[in-house]
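Below: protein 1.
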Amino acid sequence: MPEVLKRILVLSDSHGYSLEQLLMKAEQMGPLDAVFHAGDGCRDLVRYESQLPPIYQVCGNCDIFPAAQELTFDLFGKRFLLCHGHRYSVKTTMSLLEDRAREVKADCAVFGHTHRVYNEYRRGTLFINPGAACERQFMLLLLLSDGSLYARIYS
């Protein structure tokens, strides 16, 4: 397996649950270079901000705080689409999110909302859903030395 260059902690749907144990478990696996939160608990990381690398987060359908509902950004040489997924009907179809990922030329689309793990390449784009942090699920998204992205689920 190629060398791991970057580690990104991916969370979603924490719904106010404490993330302390989950964060400790993730950090035991190696240093983190970024954290993504795909909504429904977008404020749950506030108390840990000073201890974490850069955090990229969006609001979900259960969040009442004013924040972005979608972000598209470049990080570590890759383009990411981060959203909660409810606006793209991800509980019933992946086609709307696929269309949006293609439109913004995303290498990786990160979403939540379903509380179900999803980890699949579709037409050259990696689509990932870490499941629900409130059910102690998270992902580590690894950027490998060969330029590929690899997602690993933990629960």
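Below: protein 2.
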Amino acid sequence: MLKEFREFALKGNVVDMAVGIIIGGAFGAVVNTLVSDILMPPIGLLLHGVDFTNLFLVIKEGVKTAPYATLAEAKAAGAVTLNYGLFLNAVIGFLIVAFSVYLLVRAVNRLRSSKPEPAAPAAPPMKECPYCYSVVPAKAVRCPACTSQL
């Protein structure tokens, strides 16, 4: 059983998949930072100082009663919250990752399709009818113009 597991784990596809998962995790961390630290502050500024990470709805108040200025304050008070701002950040992050993957797949498909296509088959050989001098296929036994036998 250990030998079978080793063979499975060392197959090319499993190793490739592991590398993809590791790179995907790192890419996800970069995208999360891009969304939360670079994109959302200017968007929040355009929306008059709204910080998406602090958009939440209090479902049940905690030890300290509402209002809570930040999500961290609400969690520290033990309040139950619906964190739709964090959800918006995750959706924006997902859209960025999905668009990046789309661009990557599109580029790979273009590279694959840039291979030269096989040449078109040559036109069939032609011959001239000795009676009417029209051009007919070489395999023809009758001329389509004058119907004489070739």
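The chain has a mean pLDDT of 82.
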